[in-house]
Write a structure and sequence with these properties.
The structure is a single chain. By secondary structure, this protein is α+β, with helices and mostly antiparallel strands. The protein has 3 domains: 64 residues, 2-Layer Sandwich (Uridine Diphospho-n-acetylenolpyruvylglucosamine Reductase, domain 2); 147 residues, 2-Layer Sandwich (Uridine Diphospho-n-acetylenolpyruvylglucosamine Reductase, domain 3), CATH 3.30.465; 204 residues, FAD-linked oxidases, C-terminal domain (Vanillyl-alcohol Oxidase, Chain A, domain 3, 3-Layer(aba) Sandwich). The chain contains 14 helices and 21 strands. It has an 8-stranded antiparallel β-sheet with strand order 17-14-16-15-19-20-18-21, with helices on both faces. Strands 7-8-12-10-11 form a 5-stranded antiparallel β-sheet. Strand 15 and strand 16 form a beta hairpin. The N terminus is likely disordered. It binds flavin-adenine dinucleotide. The site of flavin-adenine dinucleotide has 33 residues, from strand 5, helix 3 and strand 12.
């Protein structure tokens, strides 16, 4: 292909979970919005597809392309700060791990985030990445404006004044164009007090409403085959509270040795000795003991994830959670599947973004994982059927089997989103097989 971008190459691409790969005809590394527009125009003229890729942290093939892959690594950094409003504009390829300390240096923070930080801001928001907190939305809920290059190379600035574009583009799945910058409504930096402790699952379910509503950020991990859970409550502290981070030794023991090093060993054993998993889970459920610390929000939200896995996560109406948890327990007991990864449960507030899992609905999020060397299909399909009984909406970046016909029934604005696609990308330049499946051709 011909292009004016600074650097074009070819090469194989795989995602973090090693469950999606692509062989793009070219990889472009544009340095500006104008260069992105050049790549799009040139590829469209050659009849090629174009996809931007972030950190490749989606488990689905949502970022894969047989055409031109755009790497956003040169379109990063903080571009503008409005001190009065806390609105911060960043290059779309900026990674969360770079944004957090940069915001902190300005006395600012994102209101909420997920549990890892390698993702790009455009990748994280395009798929509806979220954390936990019943009064808080996913990361895209903090977007107050964005810039996007559409199918004919036009550069659009999207603001809340254009309700349709704003409704569609904040969680755009990469289907509407290449996002080049994002503006977030940030909040003043804040400390969180973290309290983590084991609890019995029946007690968690019984006290669910107060645990979710009385904490800023509540989540729990249930160890399948047992009645044990690890419960995490993170709360903002009052002014003047001292920062008391985890000691290096405790971090190393809990987060590196138990949650990663030993957990990798547990999974390698589980691969060959499936019958041992219930015992191993019971031991894991006890090994992580209670701990408390106070640290900057982004230090508390993040946990190192060194054991490679595959994941499926669905949003379900919050009220359905106890029934869904009972259904998952019953399915695991009735099957001969053994599950070594804890099941993660989080919560989020409704938002007004058309294809956000949180659209107009208060959700619980249930995530199931499988070690990357083990087959996940039967387990995920069994649990996916349970989510399907409760109007489950799959995370766009995590494994699922739904297609456009099923998804249309779960999103009131599904066809409105498709209409925006028709407008911004009439020739389907930004499509791939995954997007054709979930949006319809
Ligand atoms: C270990 C791990 C932990 C995770 N934890 C969480 C979590 O806590 N919460 C959660 O909700 N999710 C979580 N995820 C999922 C992850 O946040 C999402 O899949 C996210 O999309 C990954 O961001 P990325 O930069 O890797 O994007 P990619 O996977 O590279 O791309 C995702 C999509 O965004 C599009 N895209 C990227 N950049 C642009 C752009 N500039 N313009 C247009 N489209 C673009 C791509 O084309 C693709 O469609 C986790 C994933 C992993 C592997």
């Amino acid at each position: 292909m011909t292009t004016t971008t600074s650097h074009v190459a070819t090469g194989q691409w795989t995602n973090w979970g090693r469950c999606a790969s692509a062989d793009p005809v070219a990889i472009a590394h544009p340095r500006s919005t104008a260069e992105v527009a050049d790549v799009v125009r040139s590829a469209a003229a050659n009849g090629q597809h174009v996809k931007a890729v972030g950190a490749g942290h989606s488990f689905t093939s949502i970022a894969a392309t047989d055409g031109v892959m755009i790497r956003m690594d040169h379109i990063t950094g903080i571009q503008h700060v409005d001190r009065e409003t806390g609105h911060v504009t960043v290059g779309a390829g900026m990674r969360l791990r770079d944004l957090n300390p940069a915001l902190h240096a300005l006395g600012l923070a994102l209101p909420n985030m997920g549990d890892v930080d390698p993702q790009s801001m455009s990748g994280a928001t395009s798929t509806g990445t979220h954390g936990t907190g019943a009064r808080l939305t996913g990361i895209a809920g903090a977007i107050v404006g964005l810039e996007i290059v559409t199918g004919d190379g036009t550069v659009l600035t999207v603001t809340p004044d254009d309700a349709d574009l704003f409704g569609a583009a904040r969680v755009g799945l990469g289907a509407l164009g290449i996002v080049t910058s994002l503006t977030f409504a940030c909040v003043p930096s804040f400390l969180l007090h973290a309290r983590e402790e084991p609890m019995l699952l029946p007690d968690v379910i019984e006290q669910l409403d107060s645990l979710v509503d009385d904490n800023d950020h509540f989540e729990f991990y249930w160890f399948p085959h047992t009645d044990r859970a690890l419960v995490k409550r993170n709360n903002r502290v009052s002014d003047g509270t001292e920062r008391k981070p985890l000691s290096k030794a405790r971090f190393l023991l809990d987060d590196e040795v138990l949650s990663n090093g030993l957990f990798e060993v547990v999974n390698r054993i589980a691969k060959h000795q499936r019958g041992w998993v219930p015992r191993l889970n019971a031991i894991s459920g006890r090994a992580l003991s209670a701990r408390e610390y106070t640290d900057w929000s982004y230090e508390v939200f993040i946990s190192p994830r060194r054991v490679r896995f595959r994941e499926m996560e669905y949003a379900i109406p919050r009220a359905a959670l106890p029934t869904v948890m009972r259904g998952i327990d019953a399915w695991i007991n009735a099957s001969d599947e053994t599950v070594s990864f804890p099941i993660e449960v989080r919560f989020a507030a409704p938002d007004d973004i058309w294809l956000s899992t949180g659209h107009d609905r208060e959700n619980a999020y249930v995530a199931v994982h499988q070690f990357h060397q083990m087959d996940y299909r039967r387990y995920f399909e069994g649990i996916e059927a349970i989510f399907g009984e409760h109007e489950g909406r799959p995370h766009w970046g995590k494994l699922h089997t739904l297609d456009a016909d099923a998804l249309r029934t779960r999103y009131a604005r599904f066809d409105d989103f498709r209409a925006v696609c028709d407008r911004l990308d009439p020739h389907r330049t930004f499509r791939n097989a995954y997007l054709d499946r979930v949006l319809g051709e």
